[in-house]
Specification:
The protein has helices at residues 3-13, 30-42, 62-73, 78-91, 103-109, 111-121, 140-145, 160-167, 194-205, 218-225, 236-245; strands spanning 18-24, 47-51, 97-101, 125-128, 149-150, 153-154, 175-178, 209-212, 231-234. It is of the alpha/beta class and 254 residues long. It has one domain (3-249): Aldolase class I (TIM Barrel), CATH 3.20.20. A 9-stranded parallel β-sheet has the order 5-4-3-2-1-9-8-7-6. Residues 182-188 have low confidence and may be disordered.
């Protein structure tokens, strides 16, 4: 089993959910990102998503969009992200790391070059927001060749047949199920039908399912996924605190 599979298997044995924490690499600074990762792992984060700053993050809300712009303004590019990943891997040898970004960035960098360097840096999986099912054949085989998993993003209105197709061959990772339509960002409440949707995805695919978008705290995440999914993601709430108040505040989020 790879690190992702081990993490989900261990959490299942312990009867708990997997906590996935998202950060935008480089906000407030690359070193601040590393210190925040340390804090989050120490505080219980099971999986870390490393957000790759992009100039047109159309799937992200104001918080992550602002964080991306701040990171880019500091010169944080793909090489900087991979450098942070390599140091994070040195510090946390057992923690799964997921590179989370837009395919435009990966394609521009070069699929083969990216996959090779990402694997060397210790990244376990890749989630490309803007890569549709019909076109992922140009990236996924390259990732698999280098031992990297691909994480499918499942929208709230994705037909179940398409969900099943998205899950095919992706058993070395997990499915990221969006809880709301639209962009990332903290929500005061989530749709009433989320639990049923998560149940259906798990039942139809047999894969580990993580709920993301709109979850603002561990308490909200635990309550949402209990009995319905295998884990949850907190992103914007963490990024907001890190970028506005500094990495020292990360501890209070976990």
């Amino acid at each position: 089993m790879n690190r992702i599979q081990k993490t989900f298997s261990s959490a299942k044995e312990q009867g708990r959910s997997v906590f996935v924490a998202y950060l935008t690499v480089g906000c407030p600074t690359p070193e601040g990102t590393l210190k925040a990762i340390d804090k989050l792992v120490e505080g219980g984060a099971d999986v870390i998503e490393l957000g790759i700053p992009f100039s047109d993050p159309f799937a992200d809300g104001a918080v992550i969009r602002s964080a991306a712009y701040k990171a880019i303004a500091q010169g944080v590019d793909m090489d900087a992200v991979l450098s942070v990943a390599a140091e994070a891997r040195r510090r946390h040898p057992e923690t799964p790391f997921v590179a989370f970004g837009y395919y435009n960035m990966i394609f521009s960098y070069g699929n083969e070059k990216f996959a090779g360097k990402a694997a060397a840096a210790g990244i376990d999986a890749v989630l490309a927001v803007d890569l549709p099912l019909e076109e992922r054949g140009e990236l996924v085989p390259v990732l698999k060749k280098h031992g990297l998993a691909f994480i499918p993003l499942i929208a709230p209105n994705t037909p179940m047949e398409r969900v099943r197709r998205s899950a095919e061959g992706m058993e070395d990772g997990f499915l990221y199920a969006m809880t709301v339509k639209g962009v990332t960002g903290v929500r005061g409440s989530l749709p009433d039908d989320v639990a049923g949707r998560l149940d259906a995805i798990r039942r139809e695919t047999g894969m580990s399912v993580v709920a993301g978008f709109g979850i603002s705290s561990r308490g909200q995440g635990e309550a949402l996924v209990k009995g319905h999914a295998d884990g949850y993601v907190i992103g914007s709430a963490i990024v907001k605190k890190l970028c506005e108040e500094g990495w020292e505040k990360a501890e209070s989020l976990v």
